[in-house]
Amino acid sequence: MMGSARKDGPFGPEEGALRIHQAIARDLGTAILTGRHKPGDLFEGEIEASERLGVSRTAYREAVRILIAKGMLESRPKAGTRVLPRSRWNVLDPEMLAWMFAGEPDANFIRDLFELRGVIEPAAAEFAARRRTDEQIATMEAALADMGRFGLSTPDGRAADQRFHHAILAATHNDALEALASSVGAAVSWTTTFKHRKRLMPRDPLPDHRAVFQAIAARDTAAARTTMAELLRLALADMDIALNEPGE
């Protein structure tokens, strides 16, 4: 029955902390992400599903709406509710990223995230070096201090890592880039969590972050771009995932 007080494991919230419809959406979303429900599969009816799960029809309906909003499901009158192709999913949705990394994310998807970050973040660092304010530099410096104090194996340290990358996007003074902050921040947090899950004592990435910070603080646009690109290259290498072309 949904809503029982079981735990998801070290990287997921306790189900009791979630509202029922959120817990249902998480479980159904995870089932889609892991292939238990494949694109094109038809979901059972609302009445049957809610009875099987032991929840109200309203809670189940709200869960389905969450997944529709994320592009995972499509519901049509008389046609039922079907799983949409992966190309329709909002894979950068922070909640969906959490579902992906709660299990064993696909190595190709991790590569995809780093390719995306490799397009966005070096350019953002270059813009930040040109446009940052003293206040934004202070925010980055405080985030680095917290990363060093808490370490990236802790939630506080990972939150500081997110603040650092968010501050860089904010320092671009580009609304379109800053709108990506939640997605980039979630990708930073979950890839770091995954790295620490795989390795007990991974390489310390703080010096890489300091190099980016120093370049931005010095308004060295070229160094800001190259140091951020190197930070991402090393972060991917830490996970033993090569940035190969698809199919190689």
Structural notes for this entry:
A two-stranded antiparallel ribbon has the order 1-2. The radius of gyration is 20 Å and the shape is elongated. It folds into two domains: 74 residues, Arc Repressor Mutant, subunit A (Orthogonal Bundle), CATH 1.10.10; 134 residues, Up-down Bundle (Four Helix Bundle (Hemerythrin (Met), subunit A)). By secondary structure, the protein is mainly alpha-helical. It is built from eleven helices and two strands. Helix content is 62%, strand content 3%. Strand 1 and strand 2 form a beta hairpin.
The number of helices is: 11
Overall, the morphology is elongated
The largest sheet has its strands arranged as 1-2
CATH architecture of the largest domain, by name, is Up-down Bundle
Number of structural domains: 2
For the record, the CATH class of the largest domain is: Mainly Alpha
Helical content class: 55-70%
> Considering the protein shown, what is the CATH homologous superfamily of the largest domain?
GntR ligand-binding domain-like
Mean pLDDT: 86
Provide the structure class: mainly alpha
Q: In terms of per-residue confidence, which ranges show pLDDT below 50 for 5 or more consecutive residues?
A: 1-17
Number of strands: 2
The radius of gyration computed from the alpha-carbon positions, rounded to a whole number of angstroms, is 20 Å
The termini sit apart by 44 Å
Return the CATH topology of the largest domain. Four Helix Bundle (Hemerythrin (Met), subunit A)
Helix and strand succession?
HHHEEHHHHHHHH
